[in-house]
Write a structure and sequence with these properties.
heterodimer; A: Rossmann fold; Rossmann fold; 2 domains; four-stranded parallel sheet; 8 strands; B: about 300 residues; ABC transporter involved in vitamin B12 uptake, BtuC; 14 helices
């Protein structure tokens, strides 16, 4: 005869163990289910389109075009960090999953957005990729598309079209807002054209390709080799040849202005800036994302153009906007 | 000459700085490295690089020089390891697995904060893999002073250090403060790891410490010769690495130079491989040590341990 009591006790402990395991598995699952239902229930106000701009300059233009019928948040908006090394947080993922309209740069600059969007599929969500609006290839070397004066007018009209598709009753409103935005770009366009006629061929050294599209539109000659700019942008060491070459633009007084990216800084770019300063080459600070507060897209770009013009004409530095 | 040295090599300021810092660091690493191998503490040297990484990545958050961070964390880590006995073979697996994992995790946090909270772009590359061409020339005096202090410290405690490396019991019997000597040596090891972290990055600094030393101890059992050989090989590998990195700018039409740390570590590794070839060892290989030479590093080879005891 076997002893029944120990066996039943063993059964009991086995059952308890299984219950514990099942609880350990089901508990978190329930928790996740509760959390996700909370996320889903956090719906937006009716009539107001919730939107996300991956970079705050796109978010700014989107809120100008959408006016009171759009609520925009931005992902990259800290002027003290380098967007190239950004890692998305869970709160960003939640904002993206709820957004009806998203504007992102593309060209690998904000690849994290694609991952978040893929993680929360929504067939009704509209995504404006600026790279696609401009018809650029994936291997476009310079991703800082918003510095090109031709970019925002095109992007803004796509924004107006998509906003109208989401809220057809406000189509006329969005068109009026779009027209107002395009008109407000006039001082910038004039400033760029006037610089180009007066100071075309100005020689400028840079650390990074951030403002290159704007500089080219202004008729500036960029002295710094693109390989050096790409190395700094990507956070790898430039070759000693190019470091020497970059500093020689200042020691030989070849560069009239030095455009310094305030958001992509390392010991090398600091030493390059010091070289410019000690050789009395005016320094102009340029930014990856729109400096806040106090600027919108138009005034920011205009401030950069004015700062470069002051550097050329009056030889004064504008290290920070 | 033109073939080997591409234009502007001798007049380039970054190359000049790299030559001085790389050369000085290679000498210190070679001397400390030979003693590290003889004492069987290669693992401690490697462990210190993990701790130094934490200090180097934390230095950007505090706004201090990475050299201070590397050496500061290295010294604290060396002291802790010496007290805990981590560098000894027994018990090292568990303690190091946990402590070094934590140190590396902390580095990950610091590097994340460095890149997300402030505009420090190349910091991960700079800390882990070094950027000798972008070192601020004002670092040179600091590097030289630290090197002189380290070598002076080793010279001062050379005899007791060697005796305690061969047999700590014998050293204690002769009145050597074995614990104190060991602690001081860990201090020199921490400084040496910090210096080579500046040159080739914290992850690769073990290569410069152990590589030339291990190679030279394969070729000679005479400790004085081993010191000289390790210094020559270390400096040669570093300078050749700098030269190749400079020349690599001209190899590719896109003018994309290749990283200097890769060349230095590759040369060291090749040297170690070549030193193991029978034909090389037949010509410059170790001979039977002369009788009565105290500095003969018998512990360099595990098979010789029995003779000492």
């Amino acid at each position: 005869m076997t002893n029944p009591a120990p066996r039943s006790r063993r059964h009991l402990s086995e059952i308890l163990g299984r219950v514990a395991i099942a609880g350990a598995l089901v508990g978190p699952a329930l928790l996740i289910a509760t959390l996700s239902s909370r996320v889903a229930s956090a719906s937006t106000k009716s009539g107001v389109i919730s939107a996300v701009g991956a970079e705050n300059e796109y978010a700014n233009v989107l809120s100008q075009v959408g006016g009171k019928y759009v609520s925009v948040s931005s992902v990259l908006n800290n002027p003290n960090t380098d967007p190239h090394t950004y890692e998305a947080s869970p709160s960003v993922a939640q904002a993206v999953s709820q957004a009806q309209l998203i504007v992102q740069n593309g060209v690998g600059y904000d690849a994290f957005m694609n991952n978040i969007e893929a993680a929360s599929p929504n067939p009704k969500r509209k995504v404006i990729v600026v790279q696609d609006v401009l018809g650029l290839k994936d291997n476009t070397p310079n991703p800082h598309l918003w510095y090109d004066p031709k970019t925002m007018p095109e992007v803004a009209s796509v924004m107006a079209k998509d906003l109208a598709a989401l809220e057809p009753s406000h189509r006329a409103y969005f068109q009026t807002k779009l027209a107002a935005f395009i008109t407000s770009l006039q001082p910038l366009t004039t400033a760029i054209a006037s610089f180009k006629t007066k100071y075309s061929g100005t020689r400028v050294a840079v650390t990074e390709p951030v403002a290159d599209y704007l500089l080219v539109a202004m008729g500036v000659k960029i002295l710094t080799p693109f390989v050096f700019q790409a190395d700094v942008m990507n956070g790898v060491d430039p070759s000693p040849e190019n470091i020497t070459l970059e500093k020689s633009f200042f020691t030989k007084h070849e560069a009239q202005v030095f455009c310094y990216n305030q958001q992509v800084v390392d010991s090398l770019t600091v030493s390059v800036r010091q070289s410019a300063e000690s050789n009395h080459v005016p320094v102009v600070g340029v930014y990856e994302t729109m400096p806040t507060p106090g600027y919108d897209y138009q005034t920011w770009m205009l401030a950069e153009v004015s700062a470069i013009q002051r550097a050329v004409v009056q030889h004064t530095s504008t290290k920070k906007l | 000459m033109r073939f080997l040295f591409e234009p502007g090599f001798f007049s380039s300021a970054p190359v000049g700085t790299a030559f001085v810092i790389g050369g000085v660091t290679a000498v210190v690493s070679a001397i400390v490295g030979v003693l590290t191998v003889v004492r069987g503490q290669s693992f401690a040297g490697h462990a210190l690089t993990d701790v130094a990484t934490t200090g180097g990545s934390g230095s950007f958050l505090l706004g201090i020089s990475p050299l201070v961070g590397f050496i500061g964390a290295g010294v604290v880590g060396a002291g802790a390891m010496e007290l805990a006995g981590v560098q000894r073979r027994r018990g090292r697996d568990v303690a190091t697995g946990v402590v070094l994992g934590a140190a590396t995790g902390l580095s990950a946090l610091f590097l994340y904060l460095d890149t997300t909270r402030s505009a420090t772009t190349g910091v991960t590359q700079q800390i882990l893999f070094g950027s000798i061409f972008t070192v601020d020339p004002s670092t040179i005096p600091v590097v030289i002073v630290l090197s002189v202090v380290t070598l002076a410290l080793i010279g001062w405690m050379y005899r007791p250090l060697l005796l305690s490396s061969l047999s700590s019991e014998l050293a204690s019997a002769r009145g050597v403060g074995v614990r104190r000597v060991s602690l001081l040596f860990m201090l020199t090891l921490a400084i040496s790891v910090g210096l080579s972290s500046i040159a080739i990055g914290s992850v690769l600094s073990t290569a410069l410490l152990i590589g030339p030393a291990a190679t030279s101890l394969r070729l000679t059992r005479n400790l004085r010769k081993a010191f000289v050989f390790a210094c020559v090989f270390g400096v040669l590998a570093t300078w050749l690495g700098i030269l190749f990195a400079y020349d690599s700018y001209y190899w590719d039409p896109s003018s994309q130079g290749l990283p200097v740390s890769f060349f230095i570590v590759a040369i060291i590794f090749l040297g170690y491989l070549v030193s193991g070839l029978t034909i090389v060892r037949r010509f410059v290989g170790p001979r039977v040590p002369t009788r009565g030479r105290a500095e003969t590093p018998r512990r360099a080879r595990p098979s010789n341990v029995g003779e000492v005891v």
